[in-house]
Amino acid sequence: MSFGPNAPADKQQSTDKVAVAIKYLRQGWDAQAFTILSEPVYEKNPAAQFALGICHIRVNEHLSAIRCFEQALQLLKSAPVPPPDTLRGTAENSGTYIGLAKRQIEEKAYLTPMDEDLFKSFPKIAEQMILLALIHAYMMGSSTEQDPEKKTKMTEQAKRLSSGLTGPVFEEFKKKLAGNNLN
Fold it and tell me: What sign does the CA torsion over 121, 125, 127, 132 have?
């Protein structure tokens, strides 16, 4: 029995549980979302790992968040590439798109869980959001770190990660990062 074309029932149930966990996170039911997302079965799901990282961010567990975001990024990069027309064209270079994207960054929308379909349909956007969340986790971790050497390494890693952010949308973010005033 399958719920979609060539989708086994257990895969569909797994996807449904991740969707429920993401819904819980959006509604403030963080503990319940964490319970679902912590199950070992979701270790290979980039949307679940990203959402789990957000759980850790919400309780200031920055090192755990970093591990989750890095896992999500690695999984996303190893996923099959979607058709090239999913994010190409003039829309991404329009003033409206750039303005909306900058606003999302200012409002830290990258700390909002993303649905699995966004990962599948727009992997480049998902990758950029994971990078922003990862940079955020490094910067917040460095601001609470007591060891000056570790603090410096975390800040430097955040700045290195910013090189993966491409396009005019991220220029202001990079300037703020360079000045260390992302809060």
Answer: negative
Helix ranges (DSSP H) in 9-112: 9-27, 30-37, 46-58, 62-78, 95-106
Distance CA 46, CA 133 (A): 13
- Residue 118: closest CA among 18, 37, 35: 18
pLDDT digits (tens, 9 = 90+) for 109-139: 999 999 998 888 888 889 999 999 999 999 9
Q: Which of 10-14, 86-90, 165-169 comes out lowest in average pLDDT? A: 86-90
What is the dotted CATH code of the domain comprising 2-178? 1.25.40
CA distance 115 to 124: 14
Domain ranges (residues) in the chain: 2-178
Encoded amino acid at 32, one letter = Q
Mean pLDDT of 38-57: 96
Tokens of 69: 């975001």
